[in-house]
């Protein structure tokens, strides 16, 4: 069956929102649809229960769908939000996109509209969960690496540093991580070791396999030279391939 998908559908037409919930749950057995008939009630539901996707009408009393979206985005900047409205226009679509809508879909006739809506919900939730998984993985990575006792620096495919832990900041005698930003692989190396290091870097990126430790002469921010064994391994950082370098003496 797969992981359940909890949908909150807000529409001021109680008959329509009940009918839509029925058809959505028929379209995909993973769907569990909760409904509300105004924005205030929708916000209460959102505060009380876990929601994977919001579907909202635009034209509702008190507050419209875009105002609802703007309020949701204050606390849930990435939660899938589908504006499912019978009142479509370029102006509404433009405002919805500016407010951070995930999907904009105009209501139609017949039951096919619920199939389309179900697909939009599923796609939005799939992307949201994948992004959330990456965020959690990176959080675990930082929790582990930030406190590691050995210097660890991470480079993008363009050879530019994208991350350094506290031990690396101390090792290279930088004031803070920002002092190392913008530096490339060669900036950390003695000129006599740069060719070998770049060869290993390109091999690591191409083959995506860890490389054993090799001794290099590393250059600190103040120009001092330190000898250290550097081991490298491939990894992912913020969704892109990177090279991780760990130095130990």
TrEMBL record:
CDD domains: PAS, REC. Keywords: Phosphoprotein. Gene3D superfamilies: 3.40.50.2300, PAS domain. The modification 4-aspartylphosphate is found at residue 57. Residues 137-208 form the PAS domain. Coiled coil: none annotated. GO terms for biological process: phosphorelay signal transduction system; regulation of DNA-templated transcription. Transmembrane segments: none annotated. Residues 6-122 form the Response regulatory domain. InterPro entries: Bact_response_regulator, CheY-like_superfamily, PAS, PAS-like_dom_sf, PAS_fold, Sig_transdc_resp-reg_receiver. This is Response regulator. It comes from Haloplanus salinus.
